[in-house]
User: Fold this.
Amino acid sequence: MKRFAPAKINLSLEILGKRPDGFHDLRSLFLPISLVDELTFERAAAFSFTCSDPSIPADDSNLVVRAARLFGNGTLPLVTLHLQKNIPHSAGLGGGSSDAATTLLTLNELTETPLSFAELEKMAAQLGSDVPFFLHRSPAWCEGRGELVRPIEIAQDFHILLFKPPFGVPTPWAYQNLAASRPLPGIPMESQSTSIGMLVNDLERPVFEKYLILALVKKFLFEQSETLGALMSGSGSTVFALTQEKIAAETLHAKLLVEFGENNWTAIVTPWKPDFLPRRLEGTK
Ligand code: C5P
Assistant:
């Protein structure tokens, strides 16, 4: 059984304040995108987990294994699980969280006594702030520490150019450095009004202060005529630009390569359409 786990970008991320539990209250517009990891599940005599990316731990620290154990109430389910990683990690694209949510959803399909969606949501929130969003896989406003998900409909007819440098940004570091961070002169970080919505990310300030290349990429994308809006996703290190047409994203991509070289990960994607990707492969059980 093969399932897709879509990545996300944050079209907005406003941090409202620090909470007593150490997390931050936020208000964020999450958008699932057509960049996907692939998870293959087979029934087996014992649990095993393998991953196409050897730099990702395959032990109990992996969110997929933690999701499987949580679903089994402490016991690992009798499946082999292979993860084909396409979404870069530590990128602000939610790959690990999406893999965990997909694991919960698929194990729930395989079990004879499925849990309710509300029960899955509770488990998802235990695994990470972004995991409940990936159970819904719809554009959504997320609040609380991210786990309160309100799906909405937004226009889907645009393209997204993603840029990720060779390094990642650890999420806790970005949040910890928010309070002491300062704006960078000449770098646009105020909210942008676009046809797709208001774009703003409060975590740009601490992340751009340390990783100047990301600030320069955003400024460059922001200034190009093809761009509807440009922003960092989540806590980085991915920066994205929105364009209306695919050809505009391709032109922008070519300009980006000239300006910043080829030693970076890039992709052109669209908003993720809930129906077309996962269902197409449902016959491959
Ligand atoms: O929930 P998750 O494990 O993805 O969060 C990773 C880290 O990001 C947390 O340990 C915390 O440092 C930070 N975070 C936060 N406020 C949030 C979400 C994450 O401070 N709403």
About this structure: The longest helix spans residues 95-110.
